[in-house]
């Protein structure tokens, strides 16, 4: 039992924060739509990546369940030994830091593009970071409860945005299916899997579950819920925006701009902005918490809370200098980052499983590591 | 003090400063500093190579007065501005407007005929990039006028021309179906997609000579210029190719399956020169592309349901089954006539696939379309369109048999 974090979270809260992890920035830039040469098939890519992500999520959860009281930082050191294990921990932290930097910048860009073009982007980033820091310092329990409540709001807003522009939707826009062959699906599937690979965060959360044995079940639920929301988004975006779908910077936002019910219920795209802000806030809080706890565990610190604000203070300049422009960010997110994320996640999991196999071969009868 | 505490204090101060500096809303817009633009029109400016935009900006104070029924002045301000690009012209408007013009509430994008004929691709980018213009704006092309002239038109019952035009367009689209109602989102998709050419609403200027009849006038006020919104503007690429009149526009709407309602006039069976008005209740269409022996063809099925709305001569549908069936046949014939009128002008005059037949091939035969699209300009005018119209007349209103008013009186 770690002394760093005493909180316990329920399975549903676990599922909610994982869903948040997946929802941004994928619904922001919609890489499945924008990186595809033919956006009609984005929904297929979304489903395929979801199907692939389920066994991936199960593998991480199963691995963590072999050490139900240890985080991925701790058990990688048990499995691979102190040197290689710490290295894996560092890779995990680096990956998480990169993700945090991406989402801070992505949300800032979304604000600057969509509603407040003249305001300096730092404003949004700093405010987001402060909000998330407070959530992260309050501990996992608080931020998970926040995540559980927010998921309903965010899910509701996304569904409303996907359903209400029905006036503008034409389902024949989804045809022809797979006009450019299966190979055209590879970039969007990889882009989507890049976001799913952030589910490696399960490794940090399992030891704090009240009932760790539920981890696999709720991880799969998280894949299904987030997969459903993004697939619904893909279908609606393509049905309503047609061939122009992959020319919009923020497809979901442009989709919400089309909502007009009886000349009364319209101009509700600020709701989308709110949903993005909430989900990015929760995700950033979770990542800040995980990175702080990870660093504390890696370097044997007694408390993680003092790390949160400095980390955020580093992330903001990083987010500012890492990308030249929104185009740069989108290009990075849908290409390099996606590929790197998949490789890192798969390599870490594979390495840990191989290590586990070697250990049980060398020291039979010691499968329990409690 | 420990160094740790200093760091912490410094960080806190920094963050507090950040919060204070961003206090309030940076990009705030106070409502009394905004001029709401209600429509935006595009023309060539008098100077070579410049565009001219025309907007109507609402005057909130006189709008209130108009509500009270004491309008002495127009409820809007029409202003034009020029620039090398649309954005340039839009920003140049600041030189004339004491309030910041705001396009979020605009309802129309109006293109002047001359401007539309010379191509609009360059001008369109502003409308979907800048973000102030909603994709739900309607796209209208003014026939025989500049956009800046067309928007002079005022409408009775509405103080704002934009609301007046919107009302007319909605009425025509719902009750007559003789106009195409195209939002910017639809328009962009039609422009971008392969195998379909764009259409937009057609609008004309109507000049009314000042009336000499003083009856019932408290004040000598008449609207001299008004607008009439019917028909469609057909594009080829980004250039205006020509106009569809009311009949042709409804023909297009039959193919697109967008006919909501309308009146079809048919000759009453067995009665010469007497008309029956069939009210269209609803209609659907199916476009099935076919490729046989390398030759593309289209099978078009239209299903329409109508009711008898009016007959000019005695009608007793119970007298023989043939009467009802004959009216349905004539209704189908009338619909086919409208579709053929639209097909004819699109194929032979514009050579512009406004029906999206090419897009239907692209969906159904993506591989064959790859070869077809290169020679679509030659193929489209030769395209066989097999039209099948199925009509059902459901009801005959509150009357089953006509009353024999005239005959009875003659007998007396």
List the helices and strands and how they pair.
The complex is a heterodimer of chains A (370) and B (412).
Chain A (H helix, E strand, L loop, with lengths): L10 H13 L2 H4 L1 H4 L7 H24 L6 H9 L1 H33 L6 H17 L2 H24 L22 H11 L5 H4 L9 H27 L9 H7 L2 E2 L3 E2 L2 H30 L6 H18 L3 H37 L8
Antiparallel strand pairs in A: 1-2
Helix pairs in contact in A: 1-8, 1-11, 1-13, 4-9, 4-11, 4-15, 5-6, 6-7, 6-13, 6-14, 6-15, 7-13, 7-14, 8-11, 8-13, 9-15, 11-12, 13-14
Chain B lengths: L2 H19 L12 E11 L6 E8 L1 H9 L7 E8 L2 H7 L7 E3 L5 E5 H5 L3 H9 L8 E6 L3 H4 L10 H16 L7 H9 L6 E9 L17 E12 L2 E6 L1 H11 L5 E6 L7 E18 L2 E17 L9 H30 L6 H8 L1 H7 L3 H7 L1 E12 L9 H7 L1
Parallel strand pairs in B: 1-4, 1-5, 5-6, 6-7, 12-13
Antiparallel strand pairs in B: 1-2, 2-3, 7-8, 8-9, 10-11, 11-12
Helix pairs in contact in B: 9-10, 11-12
Structural class of chain A, by secondary structure, is mainly alpha
Radius of gyration of chain A: 20 Å
Helix count of chain A? Answer: 15
Shape of chain B: globular
Outline of chain A: globular
Beta-strand fraction estimate of chain A: under 5%
Could you tell me the mean pLDDT of chain A? 88
Reading the helices and strands of chain B in chain order gives HEEHEHEEHHEHHHEEEHEEEHHHHEH
Give me the number of helical elements of chain B: 14
Q: Segments of chain A where pLDDT lies below 50 for 5+ residues?
A: none
Structural class of chain B: alpha/beta
Q: Within the largest sheet of chain A, what's the order of strands?
A: 1-2
| Overall mean pLDDT of chain B | 87
Give the helix level of chain B as a range of percent.
25-40%
How many strands, which pairing sense, and closed or not: the largest β-sheet of chain A? 2 strands, antiparallel
- Rg of chain B, nearest Å: 28 Å
Count of extended strands of chain B? 13
The residue ranges of chain B in which pLDDT falls below 50 over 5 or more consecutive positions are none
